[in-house]
Design goal:
Layout: H1 3-18, H2 20-27, E1 31-36, E2 41-46, H3 49-70, E3 76-81, H4 131-134, H5 157-167, E4 177-181, H6 187-201, E5 207-211, H7 212-224, H8 228-235, E6 240-244, H9 253-268, E7 272-277, H10 289-295, E8 299-303, H11 308-322, H12 329-338, H13 343-360, H14 366-372, H15 374-380, H16 386-397, H17 411-427, H18 432-438, H19 444-460, H20 462-476
Parallel strand pairs: 2-3, 4-7, 4-8, 5-6, 6-7
Antiparallel strand pairs: 1-2
Helix pairs in contact: 1-2, 3-13, 5-6, 11-12, 11-13, 16-17, 17-19, 18-19, 19-20
Length: 477
């Protein structure tokens, strides 16, 4: 199999899709690995664990789809670290213990200058995995995760405003900032955005960004190498501390104690600290009480799951910024309404749909979305019944439930019944005849008329559109 030729074609297609910058950062470093004919699995190698995880998280669907289209024998794509790069790199702790004179964005090795390989570098080696090579900036911040690309709504406005305040030139009124959100709701995005904005406002500042898991790795490594003094002095030399997924430090008493002392030292010097987790500080099991009090002493900002309005805004914002492909409004509405578990899945579904359309030359349509996003849609779709819709509509308009099946033609009854028919078609997989039978045995043409009428009224009547949006929120919550 001439996989190299196929990869060249796929890579060029992705370059046109993603743009020169993203392609150069993430796709170009990929090397072809082995191919198992028996399982149809192709290995794709990247130079570091960080880059492999990043590509797997964001581009796995695109790569898999592209290979399946190019070569039928390739049924699975596995993204991994190049076998020659699996060993853990060594810490580099020599030099000035506080790293004075080496700002985070400097040209030297303050926080991960490019020395031609993918090893960790700088004060702790945390978040600095060959970043110049990977195009992630010298401190491991994703260049695409900024405040400009973060879409705010009712559920995340407090966290977004607090994050911007934390990054401003003026000293914040609170520290630490603790961002609490479920997976895929934007807390990591805000961490990266704080880092970018803080660095712009304080060009010579020193920033430490990592996950709690990575903190644990570095802590244990320093402990084994008898380099704890260097570890502590460098860690406490930062101006901004960003730690993601703090829940993973649970149960590690020695690391908790070191983090506690570090927080105290940084706060005493007026430094800024931001933590993110999938639960509130009080819900962190196995964490020492003193550390819990430090984590919650500043501001705990919740990020609620995105509602349908915010999900719609996120899709439209992403299309306006990144995609040259036309996506009809009914597809946007369908994705925003159906993929409701988290924002990451929502954006991933849009990316997959656009990638498939571009690689196959098909136009994006509602049918294409339903065909290609089956797994994502089935995982997100809550089974809403027509009975539930009728009950909710009757409560909303204050009409008796029996009116859904009655023959009465009064406007006060007909309009709620038509709204319920419209919602039944939008929110359930039922056909027009099936819906008609649930509304007193009405003909399918009556249901079609109701659906089209409500669709038209939503575009012309703000009150009707508001009613339908309110009902959608109630039914999907």
């Amino acid at each position: 199999m001439n996989l190299a030729a196929d990869w060249s074609d796929i890579s060029q297609g992705l370059r046109k899709d993603l743009g020169q910058q993203l392609h150069g950062q993430w796709i170009r470093p990929i090397q072809l690995g082995s191919f198992c004919k028996e399982t149809g699995t192709l290995d794709l190698y990247l130079p570091t664990e960080f880059s492999a995880n990043w590509v797997a998280d964001r581009f796995a669907d695109r790569l898999s789809l592209a290979w399946k289209i190019a070569k039928q024998d390739v049924r699975h794509v596995r993204i991994a670290v190049h076998p020659g790069r699996r060993q853990m790199p060594e810490l580099r702790l020599n030099g000035d213990p506080r790293g004075r004179g080496n700002p985070a964005n400097g040209s030297g090795h303050a926080l991960g200058g490019n020395d031609g390989d993918s090893s960790l570098d700088g004060p702790l080696g945390v978040g600095a995995i060959g970043m110049s090579e990977l195009g992630m900036g010298s401190i491991g911040l994703d260049p695409s995760l900024t405040f400009t690309s973060f879409v705010t709504g009712a559920g995340n406005v407090l966290a977004a405003n607090a994050a911007q305040r934390m990054a401003a030139i003026e000293a914040p009124q609170f520290s630490p900032l603790y961002l609490k959100a479920a997976t895929g709701q934007g807390k990591t995005h805000l961490l990266h955005a704080i880092g970018h904005s803080f660095l712009a406002a304080h060009p010579r500042s020193r920033i430490f960004y990592c996950s709690a898991e990575r903190f644990m790795v570095e802590f244990v490594q320093a402990l084994r190498q008898n380099q704890m003094i260097e570890f502590k002095s460098r860690l406490r030399g930062f101006d901004l501390l960003l730690v993601d997924d703090i829940q993973f430090i649970i149960g590690k008493a020695s690391a908790q104690e070191e983090l506690l002392y570090t927080i105290d030292a940084l706060l005493a010097e007026g430094k800024r600290l931001v933590f993110a987790a999938d639960r509130a500080p009080q819900a962190l099991d196995g964490v020492e009480q003193r550390l819990l009090s430090r984590l919650s002493m500043g501001l705990v900002a919740d990020i609620s799951p995105a509602d349908i309005e915010l999900r719609r805004q996120i899709l439209e914002h992403r299309l306006a910024r990144f995609s040259p492909t036309a996506v009809p409004s009914d597809v946007i509405e369908f994705l925003a309404r159906t993929i409701n578990r988290n924002v990451r899945e929502l954006v991933g579904g849009l990316n997959k749909l656009i990638a498939y359309a571009q690689l196959t030359g098909q136009a994006v349509s509602l049918q294409l979305a339903e065909e290609q996003l089956t797994d994502i849609l089935s995982a997100n779709r809550r089974r809403i019944t027509i009975d539930e819709i009728q009950r909710t509509v009757c409560q909303f308009y204050r009409v008796d439930r029996t009116e859904m099946s009655s023959k009465r033609r009064a406007r006060a009854v007909v309009r709620p019944r038509q709204v319920a028919m419209y919602l039944a078609k939008v929110l359930t997989p039922r056909s027009y005849p099936e819906i008609g039978r649930k509304f007193g045995g009405r003909d399918h043409s009556t249901v079609i008329h109701a659906v089209r009428l409500i669709e038209d009224l939503r575009t012309r009547d703000a009150d009707m559109d508001g009613d339908v949006r309110s009902l959608l929120r109630q039914l999907e919550s």
